[in-house]
Amino acid sequence: MKNIIILLILILSQYTYSQKSYFGFTFAGSNPIAGLSYEKTLFKNTIGLSAGVGFLSASTGFKIYPIKFEKSSVYIGGSHYIVFNPEMMGWKNYIPIGISKDFERTRMTIDVGPKIEWWDRKPYTSLNFGIGFYILN
User: Closest Cα to residue 52, out of 30, 70, 71?
Assistant: First the structure.
């Protein structure tokens, strides 16, 4: 049993060892107007966890990268954010499907997907679009 636990720890440490951190600027997408975002990728860049602060907003989210090419990948994710502007106040969810292109020290993302919000106890869905520029930390 002890050997199995040690083997599992070694396998998981190999996957978490190849993690990357990105800090960047996002326009629309998970931040409704514009904002700063931080993303940490885990498990050989298969899963990404993110947090952001935007113009009168804050967000958290995740991305799953199921399809990878040499320097680019396709992802699907989820983002949950709150807006503090009185005209747009409330919790919103964004489900992006996008493409990520990695350069030597930067990353660019473009995504599109439904934005779901609850306003006056009625669900409201609209199409959303996001662009991100990130720098590798």
Answer: 30
Where do we find the tokens 């662009």?
Answer: 131
Pull the structure tokens for residue 52: 């952001």
- pLDDT band, residue 133 (cuts 50/70/90): confident
- Between CA 40 and CA 63 the distance in angstroms is 10
Cβ–Cβ < 8 Å for 115, 127: yes
- Helix (H) / strand (E) element for 20: namely strand 20-28
Q: Please, which residues bridge with residue 119 across strands?
A: 122
The answer to whether 89 touches 58, Cβ cutoff 8 Å, is: no
Contact, 79 vs 49, CB < 8 A? no
d(CA 79, CA 96): 8
- With bands split at pLDDT 50, 70 and 90, how would you rate the model's confidence at 121? low
Tell the residue number behind the tokens 């990353």, with chain if given: 107
Indicate if the pLDDT at residue 11 is higher than 70.
no
Q: With 80 as the cut, is the pLDDT of residue 86 above it?
A: no
Task: Say how far apart CA 89 and CA 70 lie, in whole Å.
Answer: 41
